[in-house]
Here is the input.
Amino acid sequence: MQAVKIIIPDGLEFAALHLSRDPITGDLEFDWSPIESICAASGLDIAMFHDAPEDNVCALLTAWYMEHRARGGAIDLVQEQIIAEVQAEDALGAERVQAGPGTRQ
Here is the structure.
């Protein structure tokens, strides 16, 4: 896979995603307009994230969040949960990790 240069437009905050989890399914929900702005600034086709495996957009969100935190940005509890799930899946295997808030779904 080829690395791409991502440009976060000035003034675009991570919080603009409005990350949340569906309380029933645990699915990640967010506003796509910040991703569209990033794609426009970076010269990328939104389909690279929207119409591709979810790993693509999750990688973008995680990279953006890490940069956001490195610059002193506020903690986002939903993104922290996603990172913890990925780490648990890497350590234990995806079939042994329950996605979501940790409550029976």
The helical segments are 33-42, 47-50, 54-70, 77-92. Strands lie at 20-21, 28-29.
